[in-house]
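Example 3.2
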Amino acid sequence: MLDITQLYASCLGGVILILFLYRVSKLFYQPNSASFRRGRQISPSLARAFIRKLSFFFLKHIVYPRLFRRRSRLWVLLQTIYWAGTLTCNFIFTHSLGIIGTRAGNIAIANLVPLLLAGRLNLAADLLGIPIRSYLQFHGTFGTMTMLQAALHSAIAIRERGWDPQEPVQFYGVLAASAISLSVVLLLIRKWIYELFLKSHYWIAVLILISLWRHAYLQRAFARLYLIIGSSVFGLSTLLHWVLLFYRNITSARFGSRACVRRKHSGAAELVIPVNRPFVARAGMTIYIWMPGVSALSFLQSHPFTITWWETDDEGRAKSLSLLIQKRNGFTRRLLDHNATEFLAWIDGPYNESLNLGQYQRVLMVASGNGIVAQIPYIRELLNLSPDVERTIFVAWELDDAAQLDWVYPWMDKLLAKDKGNYILRFGLYMPGEVTNNSPPQPWNSQHQRIWKLHGRINPWEVVSQDFWKGKGIGLVTVSAHDNILSDIRKVVQSEMEDIVDFVELPFQPAGDRQVRKLQKSPPSNNV
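Structure, written as tokens:
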């Protein structure tokens, strides 16, 4: 019969296994857009109508509302179940302090295993088929639980057996506890030592794994099985990561790529990276780039960027990638200040699961600042879909600086050129620093009045307009914007929705608070 901690570990492992198997199943079955749309729109049976109503209730009242800043009711519910279940396993049917301590140790190791799914967290999120933001939240939860359970186990063990760090069992236990404590300290100061934190976090995890193995092995504890599973998964995922990395970058003719830096106005650049082994690029994909020639220590670093644009070969695969890089601190500053225009580069990725856009007929995209770079690939993918489906796309973009418009001119022109026939794409450019909100909107710099210039900030209640709610078919709202805009748009969608509307926070969100400069007139682009 299973011990209660074994049952607890089985439940954790079962959830992870189900997510992984579901992710694998999606690789073999991809419903086409038409069948997916029929499945969500048509309700030939009472069961399907009930599921649609249930989905609407779940989104409106559980997923979209926020309780603690950016934490949804669903997140709070899952956290409550997890913490309540764990604490129950800690103390139910216990009759001594020693049993509580033993359970705490086993639970700590059981929670450590999900932390070892992959060295690259994006890879772990992709293997489970969940957004990286959600994975990071639960990674933090499992890490916190591991730390608290390890502290409880250590305190009870010292109370029951005394303090003797020279004894092997205690020595390895103290070593593991010290490594966990060091990881927490680095976590608190990671803002100032981010690159060091990433590298040390990985090797500290390896040290914890080895120390706990010796600690459990010397006691012949059942938790050794958890460590075997965790180390096996960690080893296989690490091997997979390195195989994919070498496959993506090394061919018989090339060792990496030669990335080209095309500098733009006001501290930005387009980084163009040829792809040695072309792949099918999708909206929302992220890559890590390794460029050892940027600085003395850059060979130790890799940095994530959203794929903004790509050029394709005859088979529709990406043969080069374009990334928009804004000058900030650290790597981006050193790259843009460097005199060279070409660098050796390796690509790690792509990561992030794509969104099935074919099911949507009315799409609203909201961006602020450089958040537009995350929306551009989704616009491109929507325009590439079948023209037989009636569809509308409105992009509301609040600029922080007029130079940001210069950064994306070429891509906007290409998107407008793709939009032929029905002219389904519209841009609303919000200029907060230019004139008062009372100024009327003006058509700007495009044929068929597809770009409108609006003065003032985005008003969420006006952006999510009646035209959007009255539109036919399934609705989608994607947001890559500053926190206040993101929060307000979510509130409007949650408050006004009367049918299923999918609200998606894109993987890339602009950093920090918005700082709007005085907007000046921009040079015109090519009229399309």
